[in-house]
Amino acid sequence: MAREGLLIHESEDRPEPPAPAPETPKKKWENFWYYHKWHMLIVLLAAGLLAFVLHDLMRPEADYEIGLITTATYPQEAVELLEQSIGEYGEDLNGDGRVLVQIDSFTLDPEDSVSEMQVANQVKLDADLSSGGCLLFLTDEKSFLHQQEQNRLFAKTDGSTPAKGENDPEQMRIPLSGLKALSKLSYPMQDGQDLMDRLGLSLRIYQGSAAEGTKDAEWEASRRLFEKLAG
Hints:
This protein is α/β, with parallel strands linked by helices. It has helices at 2-13, 25-58, 76-87, 116-131, 141-151, 169-172, 216-230; strands at 64-70, 101-107, 136-139, 174-175, 200-203.
């Protein structure tokens, strides 16, 4: 009995273990991201595709759809300047009484293939290439070389199909400064650089592409516009 009493008193005198410290919001977010990051990425991709489809359905039908593939995002004001300037040389292809140019932006850095924004933009570009949406492309030089190497995306400036492995920018891309119609376009940044100086225009390869046989008239119209802009 004395031993039992001693054990009881020892149990009563033993201090309670300290309560665990409450998790900080940062720690909670880290735990959530660790266990659910792939679910979140899938949701973000699905939301991005849905937004792209809804936006495509709601906007007015464009006469020309042009892709803008760059390593850095271009301001909306610069995109609108390009749309308006290019539209001055286009044709009213759908007969609605106006010429509307639509530029679809794809910001893709070849050295970044894992961030959510990069993945979403790559999915969007792949969808466009599969459907044959954009038939003209504006690119910076790094994006041009990457897309030509990965997707064999661009035709020669005369519209002909380059040989496999051919990726000479001088044969398939005209800088905006070399396009008579767009050579005076300017969009200076705070650091003194002009965003328009980075861009060149290319015609999408047609033979063997997703557009072949289904968008003959649109491709020919894009080729005519390309020639007008080149002067």
